[in-house]
Amino acid sequence: MNAGDASASDDRPSDERSHGIPGQTPTGAAHADSRTTWLLVLAAMMAALVSWGVGETFYDVIPAQRVSQNLMGTMIMAPNMATESVATVRNGALTFGISGLCVAGFLGVAGGLARRSIPAMIAAGLPGAILGFILAAGLCLALIPKILDARDQYLEYELAILFAMHGVIWGFIGALAAFAFAIGLGQRRFMIRALLSGFVGAVMASILYGLIGAAVFPLAETSQPVSHSWKTRLLAQFLLAGMTALFLAVAARDGRRDRRAATVVGARGAKP
C-alpha cells in the first residue's frame, strides 16, 4: 500500500476501517455503534430540553389583536375568532420553529461528533438548525390555517385532522434532522435511509403524543398546535426528539451491518 492509499484509508469512519471474523461484529465497529447511539441519545435529550426551555420563554408571546366589537349595544375592544386564529398560527409557527431548530441542529452536531470532525459538526449543525426553523415555521404558516378551517368544516373528524397536523409537521422536522445527522456523519449512501427513518420516527412520536394526551391529559388540549400545559409541551419535545433519534440509531446500526456484510462478501469473492 502506498502513502496515498494509507491516507485515504485513515479518512474513513472507524467502523468502515474495522475488520473481523465473518459472522461476528468487529470490536471497533461495535464501539462505533455504541458511541453513535449514545451521541444520538444525548443530542435528543439536549434538543428536547433546550427546545422546551426556549419555547416556554416564548409561549403564547404573540397576543391576539383586539378589534372593535358590539357587545349588547356597547362597543368594546377584544379579540375575535379571526384574530385568535391568527395568533394561534403565529405562536404555533414560533414553537414548531424552535423545535425544528433544536432537533435538526443538535442531531447534525451529533453526526459530526460521531465522525470526530469539528468542521462536520459545524457544516451539519448550523445549516440544520437554520433550515429546521425555516421549514417548521413555514409549514405551520402554510398548513395550520387550512387545518383549522378543515376542522371547523368537518367537526366529526376534528381530532383526526388535528393529529394529522402534528404528524405532517413533526415528520418533516424528523426527516430534516436525520438528514443533518447523515451529513455530519459523512455517509452519502445513508442519507435516504436517514430521511425515511427520521420521518417515520417523528410521525410515530406524533401518534404517541396524541394517544397519551387524550388518555392522560384530556384537559391540556394536545390536539391544538400548542397544548395548554407545560407538561404536555415537555412531553411533545421529548417524543419528537427521542423517537427521531431512536429510529435513526436503528437505521444507522442496520446500515453499518449491511456495509460490513457486503465488505465480507466482496473480500471472499476477491480471493483466488
How is the main sheet built? 2 strands, antiparallel
Shape: elongated
- How many separate domains make up the residues? 1
Tell me the strand order in the biggest sheet.
Answer: 1-2
Mean pLDDT, nearest integer? 84
Q: SS-based structural class?
A: mainly alpha
Which stretches are poorly predicted, pLDDT < 50 over at least 5 residues?
1-24, 261-267
Provide the β-strand percentage band.
Answer: under 5%
The SSE order reads: HHHEEHHHHH
Helix content: over 70%
Report Rg: 23 Å
- Cα(first) to Cα(last) distance is 20 Å
β-strand number: 2
Q: Quickly count the helices.
A: 8
Short description:
By secondary structure, this protein is mainly alpha-helical. It contains 8 helices and 2 strands. Strands 1-2 form a two-stranded antiparallel ribbon.
Write structural notes for this entry.
The chain is 77% helix and 4% strand. It is mainly alpha-helical and 272 residues long. The protein has one domain (29-260). It has a two-stranded antiparallel ribbon with strand order 1-2. Strand 1 (67-71) and strand 2 form a beta hairpin. Helix 5 packs antiparallel against helix 6, helix 6 (158-185) packs antiparallel against helix 7 (191-216) and helix 6 packs across helix 8 (230-270). Residues 1-24 and 261-267 have low confidence and may be disordered.
